[in-house]
Amino acid sequence: MKSSYRQGSIGNRKLSPETLMTSYGYDPFLSEGSVKPPVFLTSTFAFKSAEDGKDFFDYVSGRRVPPNAQDAGLVYSRFNHPNLQIVEERLAVLEGGEGALMFASGMAAITAAILAFARPGDTIIHSQPLYGGTETLLVGTLAPFGLKAQGFMDGLHEAAVMDAVKRSEGTKVPIIYVESPANPTCGIVDFELMTRAADVIEKRQGSRPLIVVDNTMLGPIFQQPLQFGADIIVYSLTKYVGGHSDLVAGAVIGSTANLGPIRKIRSAFGMQLDPHSSWMLGRSLETLHLRMERASNSAAEIARYLSTHPKVVAVYHPDFIKDAAYQRAYKKSAQAGGSTFSFTLKSGEAGAFRFLNDLHLFTLAVSLGGTESLISHPASTTHSGVAKEIRDKVGVTDALVRVSVGLENPQDLIADLEGALEKV
């Protein structure tokens, strides 16, 4: 049988990403004919010759470019390993990027992407709100190293974004960093507006900032920002891509040129993802389309129920945010609203806690994108490290509850929510 593990089409038909997730990037005949990839539990790899060893080290260090970028050779599991490469190739297919790099966590991926291009004295322009860990990284962890952060809360209107651009004058801006939809409010940015902001900055400083997008909440199934001007995509693969709440991982996706400096940071800092977690991600990619589509449909049904409940003030789900600019940007770049959203109760923290404590089917836990439905109180957990004045300003209030809808029957989940709301 002819090996076709990197075949992207049959005749004139281009194969769909969901088809490629079952086989792309893996040659069974390199692994004793095993239909599924084995877990390559090894720290180092043998060379067929001393010449191969020399070549492979030149390739992984970036000193030379291999004849075929997908076959740079295996050296040491801190640099690369088969389970890693298989999933990286599939992630690049899903996002439409030239390549991908996997990391030990989403925060490792974000940190590497920033450190590869930012230098002391530079300013990172970013959307708000951000995931709490990212916000803390930008305004806290990296600040002592001389990196500045300039946020904007409205990514849909020119005046708000350009005001942040203006406030960054006098410093170099290497990156415009956005999270869209944002965690936990589902705020989004207009990607075309981000490219215009990059144009202004490029004209001012003579170099173009990279547009980095955290695509965890909708990607890679419902949104592909590389198609709308983004340069680099970052992920917490822990969430939907992993999808079973049993691993921690991250990824960066983009062009070969942009991935080069990030790869060097990953190798030097030892941010590599282990073979077993990589293997689990490969397993999960095979069902990613099915899981995300089912969960997204259920979430829309639940959000519709909450939007009419008298004890709910507002529902922050992309389909239910009634703002014309929001809906224009959302419908232009996304195919669905995903399954993670937030809502606010009429009571404050005490009422929110009472509601959370009376649920039965929802698991009270942080994270999102798993097969089980999760629910949390962002202000006291994932965003507790963000100053309260910033939390309140960006809408992460004490009355806000975030829900990640899983694969349970949506009517069962609605019954659970209804019972808990009655006691608030």
Automatic annotation (TrEMBL):
Cofactor(s) needed for function: pyridoxal 5'-phosphate
Lineage top rank: taxon: Bacteria
Keywords, sorted A to Z: Pyridoxal phosphate
Record has Acetylation as a keyword: no
Keyword flag Ribosomal protein: no
PROSITE patterns the record matches: CYS_MET_METAB_PP
Name of the protein in its database record: Cystathionine gamma-synthase family protein
Organism listed in the record: Dongia rigui
